[in-house]
Amino acid sequence: MIRLEHRATNTTRVLVRADTPVRLVTVQHVQQEHTEPVAALCLCLAAEAIQRICSRGVARAGAVPALLRRCAAIARVALHWGRCMRQASATLAFSLSEDGRLSLKVANIPLRSIWEVTLRIELAECGAGAPHPRACDLTVTPVVAAWAPAHSELHALAAAVPADWGHVPRTVWKVFKYLKNKRPEDDFLTL
């Protein structure tokens, strides 16, 4: 819910014109009980992104329609993000905590290895652009493995992903495919 307040300096004029100053723009996130962590995280990230956009402020009422269009665009992208994350959750069976920590296990049969991948999902600021979720604190710990990937390799994988609302799903899939498809011949693992 977005609430706008304005102050009419001339009491005879009740219409809001484009040059009417806007005093305050507030965003209230209405809490709802969600049993699915992907939906709850999606709503929290979208609400925080909209709050950050609205905190930049608008000075005149003429800028409010553009602000509402940006908020609606974030809501649409967040819905698509939630669907992508739900599909990834169904396919990869990852777990997601309330604080945005994602954990999944990856098995590689040729290497006889199992790794646990953890990352934290946070909202990143993009200068003048819209805030978006990003994957950070990416770690891979061996559960049953003789080999663990170097942190520089993982950070290079995550850095290659474009910084937008697709960063988290793409990073999850990229790391999964990298570990799943690793072969003993790669990087001379058989030596």
Kindly summarize this structure in a few lines.
Helices cover 37% and strands 24% of the residues.
Notable characteristics:
single chain; alpha+beta; two-stranded antiparallel sheet; elongated; 24% strand
As a percent range, the share of strand residues is 15-25%
The low-confidence runs, each spanning 5 or more residues with pLDDT under 50, are none
Shape: elongated
Side by side, the strands of the main sheet go 3-4-5-6
Please report the distance between the alpha carbons of the first and last residues: 60 Å
Largest sheet: 4 strands, antiparallel
Order of helices and strands: EEHHEEEEHH
Number of domains: 1
Total beta strands: 6
Helicity, as a percent range:
25-40%
The number of helical elements comes to 4
Cα-based radius of gyration, to the nearest Å? 22 Å
pLDDT averaged residue by residue = 83
Structural class: alpha+beta
Structural overview:
By secondary structure, the chain is an alpha+beta fold. The chain has one domain. It is built from four helices and six strands. The strands form two sheets. The chain has a four-stranded antiparallel β-sheet. β5 (113-124) and β6 form a beta hairpin. α1 (37-55) runs antiparallel to α2. The protein is elongated and about 75 Å long. The relative contact order is 0.12.
